[in-house]
Every structure is written in C-alpha cells, then in structure tokens.
Amino acid sequence: MNTSAALQPEPAPVAACTVSRDVQNFDLLIEDMEAELGESWGDLSFADAAAFLAQPDANALEFIAIAIDSEDESEIAMIGDLIHLAQDKGVKVLLIAQDVGPVVLHQLLNFGADGFLPYPLPEGTLHEAIERLRAPEPVAPPPSVPGTDGHAQKASGDRDGVILAVHGLAGGVGATTFAVNLAWELATAQKKDGPTVCLLDLDFQMGTTSTYLDLPRTDIVYELISDTASADSDSFRASLQIYGDKVHVLTAPKDMLPLDIVGPEDVTALLDFARSNFDVVLVDMPKTLVAWTETVLNAAHVYFALMELDMRSAQNALRFIRLLKSEDLPYERLRFALNRAPRFTDLQGKARVKRMAESLDIDIELLLPDGQRQVTQACDHGVPLSQNAAKNPLRKEIAKLAGSLSELMAAEADAG
Questions:
Q1: Confidence of residue 322 (pLDDT cuts 50, 70, 90)
Q2: What is the pLDDT of residue 143?
Q3: Residue 164 pairs with which residues in a beta bridge?
Q4: Residue 250: exposed, middle, or buried by beta-carbon count in 10 A (0-12, 13-18, 19+)?
C-alpha cells in the first residue's frame, strides 16, 4: 500500500473564480485573490465559466469575479447570460471593470451583479467587497417614530410626496440656486412638524447642489443610479446626505457622466423612492432635454421653468413650449419664473416683461428679484440665502413661495 498517497490531503474546494478573457491583463487582481483566498480560487475563460457553473463542483463557489475591459464590450450579452447563470446557481457575482463605458457598465449592473469594483483595484477594496458578499442580508430596522429626537424625521416609505421640478431654460438663469433655496425654505417654513424635503440633483454633468450646500460628492450616488433595478428604499436613503438636519440631498455623481446613463425607468424608480419617503421632492433638472425629461414632467405636480429677460431665454422658452405641445405633453404643469426681474419702480422693465409674456403667450407667474452679489457669496460659502443674507429680496420671495406651497399642501392634507 502506498502510504504517501493515502496521506495526501484532498485539495481545498474552490471558493471563487476569476472569469476573464485573459486574467494576465489583471495582474493586480491575481495578487489580491491570492492574498484573500490562497490556493482556493481558480481562473476561467468566459466559455469555460458557463460549463463549470453547470457542474456539481460549482456548488462550493462563494462568488465569481468577472473582469472585463473595453475589448469585452462587444460580449455584453454573453456576460449577461453568465451573470444570470451564476444567480440561478446561488453564486454571487463581483464585476471588475477597466476602461468600460458607463452605458455598458450600467447595462451589466442591471443584469444583477452583486458588486462593482474599478480596475486597477484600490488598496483593500477587494477584501472589503468580499466581506460584503459574505455578510448576511441586513435586517431593515423598524421605522423611527417621528419627532422623538432632534434630527430630521427618518423616512418610513409610506408617504406620497409632492414633486416639484426646476428647469433652467438657459445657462446661468439661477435654476439650481432657486431649487436649493426653495428646498431649504420648505423644510424650515414651520418650526414644528414641517414637511420632510428631498432634493434630487439629476444634472449628472454640471450639477452643483453639492457646491451650494457644501456637501461632498460620493461614489455611492453612481452605484445607485447605475443599478436602480437592485436598489430599494434603504439603499436610496443611504445615498442621501443631510444638510442642516432638514434637507436630504442626492448630489450629482463624483465624476461627470453622460445624461443617458439613466433611462426613464431608472428616473421613475428614483422618483418613487423619493416621494414614498418624503413629503416634498425637489428635482433639479439639467438644461438639456433628455429621454427622461418627459418622465419628470409627467410625475411633477409643478414644473418650474426659469428664465431671464433676454432673447436667449425667450427663444428657448418658445421652442420648449412648441415641443411640449407637439408631443401632447402636460404643458399646463409649467410655471414660468423670471429671475432677476425688474424692480417695482422700473416701469420700462415691467413693460418688457409684459411684452415677453404676450409674445410667448404665457403667464409669468413668479417674478424673482435680483439678489446680486449676496447670492453668489451664499453659493460660494455653501449655505442657503436665509443663513447668509436673510433680508435679501430674492430670499424673501422664495420664502414667500415656500410659505404658500406649505399652506396649500397642509390644506390638501386636511381635506384628504
């Protein structure tokens, strides 16, 4: 009897596999896998991975790490099938991508990957990702009782919030300034039991709500918008930041992203999460019209269109109105607001406003005075106008609007 053969230990079961076109293109991944798993991992090609997952040996797998680069973008369908096959087997999927376009990455994450890491791998990120994959599913905490602490009320997912969208019809008309300050004024309009307010910055390229409220841009926002199909109310709330214990803010992503990284169904999911958790949802829209502009317009109770007293605003407003009417969209939800409006004593300016409204066949319902340098200073300092220049005429007008909206919402709530 060959005793040495009898004493040979059985090989450890394979706990994980990398899956790639050529794992040598991901040398840092090899090093990290060896550091984390020793010899209990293997490497497979895309074709071999599908065959291996169908075998009994795959039952011991904890996860597969699919590593892709720009050359693999043409194989997105095959990679999607592989992700679905792993899910059916109960195997977690970690997606590792290098130089992959955001649209392709968005599609892959929608297939249901359990995690995403950029390559080259930052120090310690693979270890953290594996720990998250191994962690048991979190149990959602019970909703807090409103008013039991000094902080903003936690969302419970049982609300039906009002959606107010803000769209600048030209660059620099002050749409984000208006959205940020309106959100703050609504949240602070009442000293007790005021509405909970959420501000969504959907300008994924030039959004500046984080600047105007001095909030950091975080990676978790990208993770949320790139995989809304896997998101829930908990992950949505985790991506929000709180300003002054009053306003919950979804800032623009850390990196500049194409506006089509999300589609109408993704924006619908974000709006549903927001309105089910907050009383008021302010949406800061990009100036560019995209496929999901119609989604927000249809969902909004009021769609503020900001403009100035100049030719570019007038021309853009006219084109916007024509588009909405030609597509049979709810044009009646538009509320035109004129920023940097003429003063009460400027009779010539008031006449120009009247001529503009008549030529466009619109009602300019909101005249916002010029806040001048104090507005720029407040934005640069990252605070609302009420904290930096409470007596500013623009701040007073926005506070007046917030008070009217609050009274209207309270009346509707009492009637309901």
A1: very high
A2: 39
A3: 282, 302
A4: buried
244 Ramachandran zone, left/alpha/beta (phi>0; psi -120 to 50)? left
Strands 364-369 and 280-284, by their bridges, are: unpaired
Residue 114 confidence class, pLDDT cut points 50, 70, 90: confident
Return the SS3 of 369: strand
| Counts of helices then strands in the chain (DSSP H, E) | 17, 13
Q: One-letter amino acid identity for 158?
A: D
Task: Give the rounded distance of the alpha carbon of 86 from its chain centre.
Answer: 28
List 16's β-bridge partners, or say none: 41, 63
Q: CA 51 to CA 30: how far, in whole Å?
A: 22
**195 alpha carbon, distance to own chain's centre:** 21
The whole-number pLDDT of residue 7 equals: 45
Residues contacting 336, CB < 8 A, separation 6+: 305, 307, 317, 357, 362, 363, 364, 365, 366
- Give the model confidence (pLDDT) of 63-111 as tens digits: 888 998 888 888 888 888 888 888 888 888 888 888 877 667 767 777 7
CA pair distance 350, 309, nearest whole angstrom: 10
**Token pair recorded at residue 297:** 């317009």
Hey, what are 304's tokens? 């503020």
What is the Cα 342 distance to its own chain's centre?
A: 36
pLDDT band of residue 11 (cuts 50, 70, 90) is: low
Cis? peptide before 141, omega within 30° of 0: no
Sign for the CA dihedral angle at 368, 371, 375, 376 comes to positive
Q: Is the pLDDT of residue 38 over 70?
A: yes
- Helix, strand, coil percentages (3-state) for the chain, rounded to 5, are 50, 15, 35
Q: Which helix (H) or strand (E) holds 306?
A: strand 302-307
Query: Strand, helix or coil at 377?
Result: helix
Secondary structure of 45-77 as H, E, C letters: CHHHHHHHHCCHHHHHCCEEEEEEEHHHHHHHH
pLDDT over threshold 70, residue 399: yes
Q: Which amino acid makes up residue 124?
A: G
Q: Other CB atoms closer than 10 Å to residue 119's CB: what's the count?
A: 18
236 CA to centre of own chain: 8
